[in-house]
Specification:
about 200 residues, 7 helices, about 30% strand
């Protein structure tokens, strides 16, 4: 989808709840705050929530309309809002403690390239959290894009997972009003040193 199409969607109505995704909240609650980026932040619900926990957050999205919604929320002054294409935006190497990529769906080569770059932005011990619609949703779940080439799977995220000390790489189920949705989760940290890998 192009930025203009998302601008139109956000202009029509708020797309998501103001609350963070339940699994994201479960994984991130209790982590010591640091520097984070929320890629494809949309209306900024996760960025705002993280800022409320004390994180220094940059919210990046190509939809100015979506980010404008976020800028209008309480606490928005604690977030740095950046209108940019996440496939070309970059951060300094080893400058972040958390990279969050929630429900961003791109063709597999673009996804892999972005996530490899995201790993390089993490400080040693920094965390990558990727959550998105699983390809099996097309036949066994509900919701999400209906284009197999842009959906996640454990296999598709495995090359990026190989760069991390992985806590979780799995398909997860999520209950929605329309039924059970299937998501793919990658949750891991950058090794503090090459010898730490696999510990």
């Amino acid at each position: 989808m192009r930025a203009e199409e998302w601008d139109e969607r956000y202009a029509e109505r708020q797309q998501w709840s103001a609350e963070p995704n339940v699994l994201i909240a479960e994984l991130l609650t209790g982590l010591p705050p640091g520097d984070a980026v929320d890629l494809a932040a949309g209306e900024g619900r996760h960025a705002l929530w993280l800022a409320g926990l004390g994180w220094r957050v940059t919210a990046v999205d190509f939809s100015e309309v979506g980010l404008s919604r976020g800028r209008g929320e309480p606490g928005a002054d604690r977030v740095t809002w950046v209108t940019a294409d996440v496939t070309t935006w970059t951060a300094e190497p080893e400058s972040l403690d958390l990279v969050l990529v929630a429900y961003l769906h791109l063709p597999e080569p673009e996804t892999a390239d972005l996530l490899r770059r995201a790993v390089s932005w993490l400080r040693p011990g920094g965390r990558l959290l990727v959550l998105g619609h699983d390809v099996e949703n097309l036949t066994a779940g509900v919701g999400g894009p209906q284009e197999a080439a842009i959906l996640h799977s454990v296999g598709r995220l495995s090359p990026v997972a190989a760069l991390l000390d992985v806590d979780r790489l799995e398909q997860v189920r999520r209950t929605t009003p329309a039924g059970t949705a299937l998501d793919t989760l990658l949750w891991g940290r950058r090794a503090r040193s090459p010898s730490d890998r696999g510990r």
